[in-house]
From TrEMBL:
Protein name: Chloride channel protein
Subcellular location, record wording: Membrane
Biased composition (Low complexity): 457-467
Membrane topology note: Multi-pass membrane protein
Organism: Spongiibacter pelagi
Region spans: Disordered: 448-467
Source organism, top-level taxon: Bacteria
Major subcellular location class: membrane
A Pfam match: Voltage_CLC
InterPro entries listed in its UniProt record: Cl-channel_core, ClC, ClC-type_chloride_channel
GO cellular component: chloride channel complex
């Protein structure tokens, strides 16, 4: 009897040990789970390093542009057209998928079920071209930003790392590309929260509950890398912002409506102009680059260089009180950004949109007494950017993080971004990046269909006999 009880106790102990061991394995995760986490984290660190190098190279490139412009601005009548022609030739020769912002490419490949689309869009060659051609465009005096390209480069790096680690295809599709793109935003702006919100709001269809924590940690790690190299800084500095009075909100809403309308019209003309230029770009890319380069150079000379670059310098000067907003500069920046995008070269619209919003807000501040000019500049940035991308949460979070996280202005930024998004939808019903991604499908339709098998010799012979 005692032996029987002993054996029963041993069986219960063994069963308990086996069940406890299985539960511990579930809690700790399998080897595949840890390999996935390692790819996310190492990839995020790599993205942070690469994007920080990209930021440094782009700043140095534009610094050279400013020096040349100060020495002799008329040199850009030669530099800009020839530079854009060289960029267009290199892009068409070595990687057409590096064209434009890069965010439409990321949206397309993570939603598209055709696996063969990822290689042409997320290859390392395309990522390298994206970096150097974007910096070359800034050096030539074009009007663009590096944040959209940073999203593309980050997604490509994470995707390739996942391929080398031989992770499951579903994980690569639904998480790595999103994490890479969001880490690119985080590292480009030194704004981890903006990267998280961008991943949720712009790429929300690929978010999964079980990988969300890993994805957020990856975004934070990329931001930590930037802090290691560049220290703690705000992209546009830390402007002196006072709380906005409740009586100022009618003025805030008025500014938001105008900026949202301008942002929506910008997106509309960007899409329609890109469609109109697509056939001409396919036939004569170098001629288009030449004409656009001459126009950009002329506008840059007439504006004293204000329409060149990303708009970062002008926006920072406005927020520091060192310059005043200008309607001419705002509209010139809009036109220059559109022309640059129509040329087909790599480059984004994030920073130029923030720069235009700052100019619009600053220009309207002289017409609205009683409201801090800096507050209206920040409202202009958030509302115009929200009007362009129609992502209100991303808009006000980015502006908040890029200007020192002063929460006194947060309610005004939220109201302005939401108002601008509603107004923008009246002229541009769909978000611009999603429309550009749909248009991108048409441009690469030859890759969207599986090659049809050739007819067997017997069928060919039978067809020949019938004929």
């Amino acid at each position: 009897m005692a032996a029987k009880k002993r054996r029963l106790a041993q069986r219960r102990l063994r069963l308990w040990w086996l069940l406890n061991r299985r539960n511990n394995r579930r809690r700790l995760g399998t080897w595949e789970d840890w390999k996935t986490r390692a790819v996310f984290w190492l990839g995020a660190l790599l993205v942070g390093v690469v994007i920080q190098g990209f930021a440094w190279l782009s700043e140095e490139s534009y610094g050279v542009t400013q020096e040349i412009f100060a020495h002799n601005p008329y040199l850009f009548l030669i530099i800009t057209p020839l530079g854009l022609m060289a960029i267009a030739w290199l892009m068409n020769r070595f990687g057409k998928a590096s064209k434009g912002s890069g965010i439409p490419q990321v949206l397309l490949v993570h939603k598209q079920t055709y696996h063969w689309l990822r290689e042409p869009f997320l290859s390392l060659r395309v990522a390298v071209l994206k970096v150097f051609l974007t910096c070359g465009a800034l050096l030539a005096g074009a009007t663009l930003g590096r944040e959209g390209p940073s999203v593309h480069v980050g997604a490509a790096l994470m995707y390739k790392l996942g391929c080398w680690a031989k992770l499951k295809q579903k994980q690569v599709e639904t998480s790595l590309i999103v994490a890479g793109g969001a880490a690119g935003v985080s590292a480009a702006f030194n704004a981890p929260l903006a990267g998280i919100v961008f991943a949720i709001e712009e790429l929300q269809q690929s978010m999964e509950a079980r990988t969300t924590g890993t994805l957020i940690l990856a975004i934070i790690l990329s931001g930590i890398v930037v802090l290691m190299f560049a220290g703690h800084y705000s992209y546009f500095g830390v402007p002196d912002v006072s709380p906005v009075s409740i009586f100022a909100y009618p003025a805030i809403v008025a500014v938001s409506v105008l900026c949202g309308l301008m942002g929506g019209l910008f997106s509309f003309f960007l899409v329609e102009g890109s469609r109109a230029m697509s056939s001409l770009l396919g036939k004569h890319p170098l001629k288009v680059a030449l004409v656009v380069g001459l126009l950009l150079a002329t506008m840059g000379i007439l504006s004293g260089g204000s329409t060149m670059g990303s708009g970062y310098v002008e926006a920072r000067a406005l927020l520091a009180g060192e310059a005043e907003g200008s309607w001419l500069v705002a509209f010139g920046k809009i036109a220059a950004t559109l022309l640059t995008y129509f040329s087909g070269i790599p480059g984004g619209i994030f920073s130029p949109s923030l720069g235009v919003g700052a100019e619009l807000g600053g220009a309207m501040s002289s017409m609205i007494p009683g409201v801090s000019p800096v507050s209206l500049i920040l409202v202009g940035m958030a509302s115009y950017f929200a009007g362009v991308v129609q992502r209100p949460v991303t808009a006000f979070v980015i502006v908040l993080e890029l200007t020192g996280n002063n929460h006194d202005i947060l309610p005004a930024l939220m109201v302005s971004a939401l108002t601008a998004t509603v107004v923008s939808k009246l002229v541009m019903p769909q978000p611009v990046y999603h429309v550009l991604a749909q248009d991108l499908v048409r441009g690469w339709s030859h890759l969207l269909k599986k090659p049809e098998p050739e007819n067997p010799p017997a069928e060919n012979a039978a067809g020949a006999e019938k004929s």
